Write the structure tokens for this entry.
Amino acid sequence: MIFLDLPIDERVRRIHDLGFQVEIWDWTQKDIASLVRTGATFSSMTGYVRGGLTDRELSDEMLRTARETVPIAKELGCPRLVVHGTQLGGDGKALRPVGEVTGAMWLNAVRALADLADLGEANGVTFCLETLNLQVDHPGVPFAYAADTLALVEAVGRPGVRMMLDLYHAQIGEGNLIELVRRAGPAIGEVQVADVPGRCEPGTGEVNYAAIAVALRDMGYAGVVGLEAYASVDDVTALERFRSAFTL
């Protein structure tokens, strides 16, 4: 979402040279060997190609394509693989939007995430169910709110499945972010950030990321914080503002 005027490999090199790890989305459209040659450290990537969590057919397809993804993650040295309640299109919208999440869907989601936990634990990677917002970016995605992802992760109760706690999405959908990170605690696989409104770097909107950084430190969080945001002015400034917000 930054250095968008550059080819993906050069984008990765620039981020790496500035001292950051790199996150990518769809791996199927990228030259993996070329990404490896950049020397970058990869933090997370999309962990499936097709499928979803709401019924057996979709979850079997998610598991099948997750199995295809794991060797790519190992090649990149990427420890976290992101999944969603349903497959997203290029615009972030649900390809199979869900209006009402039924009890059967919840039960299938728990079973499917347990299967992903088996896969992750056998291969040394963690599948992270991402928090999304329905109001602005991802209408129709089931199990999208932080309360939903946390409930599913805790129901599975396995180290191979965690939350991708995106605080941009959580601010739009639920708010009360400091209490949210405290409540989620050990269920968090990674935290992602962007400010609201605008989805730019911290300091450009309403979220008090300095206070959130203190809360994360005080609760003993030692994991990754990822910037999933656009640059409000220029890319280097955005990265420096992000670094500053989480340097205590």
